[in-house]
Amino acid sequence: MEVTVLIPAYNEGNTIESIINTLKTIKSIQEVLVINDGSTDNTAELAAKAGARVISLPKNLGKGAALQRGIEEISSRIIIMLDADLIGLNKVHITNLLEPIYRGEADMTVGVFNHGRGITDLAQFFSPNLSGQRAVKAEMISDMSSLKKAGYGVEIAINQHVKKKGRVKYVDLPDLTHIMKEEKRGIIKGVIARSKMYWDIFRVLFNKLKV
């Protein structure tokens, strides 16, 4: 089954190139698609240089909108979604995400950090549903027409949608971590961004946002 990796990215010039370089060495992946979500740095240029197909949005529209645009562009039967700020990505992580789908055990897998970095491991231990690392059969999400409304709550929205009609399995992603918002943007801007993320999640969970 053809596999496309979908990466929404906003100002991730420090990490995007190394992620794509790793993905390009994995034979099971046919395409890497980066949705440049209005970045003001060199994210798009570095992604293209590393060999990804890049689609740039005219402005920062949010993670939900970026993922929706990517899904609309993909014809592969399996989509792997990855965050653009990962550190330590390797072939094992991709294999762990794909194998349960290949074996017919799941329609979507959700990856959970393990033995990567204490603070990110702990966060995903308590809230694995928020993980941005996942693989899913394209048919399970092709009818989700309003993901852009979910914003940072997009993972919760996808979980709710897929669980209604398919099987979800959680898998370990050993020694993988990511850069936290407060580290990338500074304490004040990071806290503001995290607050918006939690608000978007709240909207999806409690307002029954239709996606």
TrEMBL record:
Domain Glycosyltransferase 2-like per the UniProt entry, residue ranges: 4-118
Superkingdom of the organism of origin: Bacteria
CDD domains, A to Z: DPM_DPG-synthase_like (cd04179)
Signal peptide: none
Pfam families named among the record's database cross-references: Glycos_transf_2
UniProt xrefs under SUPFAM superfamilies: Nucleotide-diphospho-sugar transferases
PANTHER family: RFBJ PROTEIN, UNDECAPRENYL-PHOSPHATE 4-DEOXY-4-FORMAMIDO-L-ARABINOSE TRANSFERASE-RELATED
Protein name: Glycosyltransferase
Organism encoding this protein: Iocasia fonsfrigidae
